[in-house]
Please model this.
Amino acid sequence: MLSIREAGGVVATALIVVTGLIAFGFLDPTTIASMGGKADVTHADPGMVDAVGASERGRELYLSSCASCHGPDGRGTERGPTLENAGPADWDFYLRSGRMPLDDPSQPLEPGPPSYDDADIAALVAYGRRLGDGPQIPQLVTGAEQPAGRDLFVNDCAACHGVTASGAAIGPDAFAPSLRGVDPQLIAEAPLVGPGTMPVFDLDDEQLSAIASYVAGISEDGAQGGFELGGFGPVAEGLVALFLGLLAILLMARWVGSSDEADASASDGGTGDGHE
Amino acid sequence: MAVVAVSAGFMATLGAGAGLLIVYLLGGDPRTEGVLLALALGGFGAGLVIWSHHLMPAPIREEQRHPMASSEEMRSALSRELLHGGVIGRRRALAWLLAAGVAGLGAVLVVPLLSLGPSPGNSLYQTAWARGRRLVGVDGQPIFADDVPVGGLVTVFPEGAAGRADSQAVLIHVDPGTFEMTGDALTWAPAGFVVYSKLCTHAGCPVGLFLAQSRHLTCPCHQSTFDVLRGAQPTYGPAARPLPQLPMRLEADGTFTALGDFPEPVGASFWDMSA
Amino acid sequence: MSRISGAIGWLDDRTGFSRLAYPSLRKVFPDHWSFLLGEIALFCFVLLLATGTYLTLFYVPSGEQLRYDGPYTPLLGTDVSAAFDSVMNISFEVRAGLIFRQIHHWAALVFVGAIVVHLGRIFFTAAFRKPRELNWVLGTGLLLLAIGEGFTGYSLPDDLLSGTGLRIANSVLLSVPLVGPQLAFLAFGGEFPTDQIISRLFILHVLLLPGLLIGGVILHIGLVWIQKHTMYRTPGAKESVVRGPSFWPVQVFRSSGLFLLTGAVLALLAGLVQINPVWTYGPYRAYESSVPSQPDWYMGWLEGTLRLAPAFEPTILGVTIPSIFIPAMVLPGLMLLLLLIWPFVEGHHRGDHEEHHLLEWPSEAPGRTAVGAAAFTLLVVLTLAGGNDVLGGLLTIRLAVLNDIFRVSLFVLPVVVGILTYRVMKARGAQQPRGPQGAVRLERNAQGGFDEEPRS
Model:
């Protein structure tokens, strides 16, 4: 049976180890509830697909998976909204981020692995053009200017997603997901789509590319000083300072000083046996 | 054994110190610098500690405590010395004037402190918004109604004062006809557009988070939440006042102009806001 | 031997220092590791002074605007303050600048943590009893100064995160009834945001607060030196005797070693783990916001009070009491007041006005231990609530639910913990016999030494 002192030492060491594992990225607390749509599927340019053939395939897929909630004519049912204002960007975003198809309409939209491969997504997007009209799929351009991307991100996106793009719970009921590691195409589409409780932004392809490029670079540009702790800021830094730093120093103090209170007592030559 | 450990510690310091110098001369890198610094400091420290634990006789000694208090005679003598035969105490009137003089000196100290800042005056009741001022974005360019889709928002300022902290506001576009305000407030919300002060009435953080689905604005600092369709009434969180609404109208060319300043003070509450 | 004697002789001829140095070297200090906690705080403070002095050589305390043209490309051409620019310079252009900046900030976080742990040890072993009440008050003052140093310090880079904190501080000052606006305008030099605030924070951070801290630390350690350290009360312990190894060489070696080991831990943290990446936050703009926004950990409890407090803003006799006034000023003020006067409150409550040099075991004072445990629980809940958006995001719990959980915990947990602690301490206290109960009185005897006379 461990004495309190020994138990304390074990707990302290365990805390240090766990904090260290999290701090240095070996244990990811965000996988407890992964919020970011980590669709790291590389994909072909979504715009360039054989229109007619794809559109027919898309119609088949739509009728089998989507029509039950969105209606055979895409004008909605009591289970799902109308798609008359959904453009290619909406279709591509919801499918590619795995938010759609949704098995149970009462469940919130959650990102995850897409249910369709690139070809099928392109087919559904092509069919979608027949059902409704809305924002086009942004074409990402390379070489987008950096100060501009950061400025746009901070002015439009950072309020909810955070300057470090790590996301957070916002307001009484909502969540803004982390954008780290998210497919740049999705980052570019989301402002046009306004998924869930996200507002809609009128941005052109160059602006969206700049934003996506900035977000993609956040982890590299950002981690100049060492492990980033997920970009959560002072909350994470405080936990590391106390449960890694201070705890380690306290253990060292225990090594340096005596652990026997009798040494620190004023007894006449008594050795003092175990107490506390 | 301990001698080996101590030597190892001190040699680690020497090595790490040299390594640190080399890394520095080669251009430096925070990670390597940190590890080498840790080795240098830690090696030396561990060496000292092991030396003190194992290579140093450390006899436990005793010392007598003494009561903190001085003797009665000393304390009485001190009292007598301070009172000094009533040299101050017996001259009551003078003593009171002395005390008053000290207070006067205190006033001298207060004077430079008051120069630290201007009197608030009217500043907290005014922003740069005025009748006829056009709404512009952060870049100073006018905002057009077409720039802001339904379910969208943009940060706006009065023309000529882009970036001014007390004048920051959000222009929001919702479905026309969904506002639940009445009277003037409804007039100031034309075609589904409305402008509220962006300064949270709780602690002054910019309320830049628009929850489009529920049409609420929420603040990132302490999660005060305001209902956009009902004049930014607080519906959750610690804010107790609604966000002031900017009187504005939509012009024929698609730009917006203010009809005046905010009707209430913006930002965090203070004690005499109704003045 | 002769070289040392020579040196001693030279210095002693001019200062007579030997008669001070000799008893000092032989002075006895008990060696228990829990008595080293205050030293850890001291070591952090020394490291802060050293790294801080280095940083002052590069930092520019000015709010004047200029265009950034350093190596961090995402901010190229952006308007930033000279202060922000200088911190970017330290981080990216001064060689070894970033490591020392990060050591400085990590040391600040650990500094306050060490003070809190040290305060806890003092509290739970009743080391604050007469004659050490003064040192307790002094120590609480040092805690406040340390927190103030931290807040002013991390506000110096004028970045988005710390600037948001300054805005909140300004609003807290504004909220004081009758004098709020004047207070805020005096402190900041005008309506928020001002250019002067950076230079004022700088003077507070590098001159006024460190001056008070250094003076306070000297007094604090001086009192320990004069009053001699307390001892644990094990069987056979006596109030009248201090026991331990002497200052030189053992304590000096151990303390110096611990100092260097503390530095090593902080250096390792600073090299491997990033802290306060101001380049990602960017320069402060009063109209920009970000989540999550928190102060450094030691102010997290204040943040928690602000997030959990209700939207209660009454107007009494024409005076509006803003909703942040009570959670941000009144409640913390009351808590700090209670902390400051605790030794006097407890002394009065127990009718105990005797000198004590032997510590009490926590189980011997179940009431105090329970109160301390409850207070600690309260602070932990508040601190966690300060990070509610991070927690809510990680655990996918809606804030409406999470905040209610925190509010209930705020009232229920401290009571539960207090009652449990009381029971456990009472049970332990009953089991183990301790050293001499109650206080003793020291009386001079005929031989000039001291006798212990028990007091009932």
In short: Residues 310 and 323 of chain C are 8 Å apart (CA to CA). The beta strands of chain C are 65-67, 79-81, 241-244, 315-316, 319-320, 440-444, 450-454. The two ends of chain C are 54 Å apart (CA to CA).
